[in-house]
């Protein structure tokens, strides 16, 4: 097991914790992520069974595609989760973790759909759509 990682939404109505190993952070530049967040998403991933949630009554799930949904705090509006149907993992927004998070960037996906007001110059791998190992929904 890894070190305990904890996090929450902006107002604290939703809290989470896990001791599971977290995936590297994937930066998603698809139009859905940009429109929901105002920029791009930065998310890690963990087994859903290894993510302990508190305040689930404050989570609203938005069906964003035929195969995925996005979870956010209904009180403060913080984007928190992305869940692909049928998979046993859940993406957690990297910025929702308390610091130090210990997270590190891994790659950028949907770079062909990125906003025209910024550049990606951190040296991480970039993919027009996704990596071969990251499940995504059609954007």
Main sheet properties? 7 strands, mixed
Average pLDDT level: 93
Oligomer: single chain
Written as H for each helix and E for each strand, in order along the chain, the element string is: EEEHEEEEEEE
Overall geometry: globular
Helix proportion:
under 10%
Number of continuous helical runs: 1
Radius of gyration: 14 Å
Structural class: mainly beta
Distance between the termini: 34 Å
Unreliable spans: none
Strand order of the largest sheet: 6-7-8-9-4-3-10
Total number of strands = 10
Taken as a percent bin, the fraction of beta residues is: 35-45%
Please give a structural write-up.
The mean pLDDT is 93. With 139 residues, the chain is mainly β. The radius of gyration is 14 Å and the shape is globular. 5% of the residues lie in helices and 35% in strands. It has one helix at residues 31-37, and strands at 5-8, 15-18, 25-28, 41-47, 52-54, 59-63, 68-73, 79-84, 89-93, 105-109. A hairpin with a 6-residue loop joins β1 (5-8) and β2.
Task: Name a few traits of the molecule.
139 residues, mainly beta, single chain, 10 strands, three-stranded antiparallel β-sheet, seven-stranded mixed β-sheet
SSE layout:
Layout lengths: L4 E4 L6 E4 L6 E4 L2 H7 L3 E7 L4 E3 L4 E5 L4 E6 L5 E6 L4 E5 L11 E5 L30
Parallel strand pairs: 3-10
Antiparallel strand pairs: 1-2, 2-5, 3-4, 4-9, 6-7, 7-8, 8-9
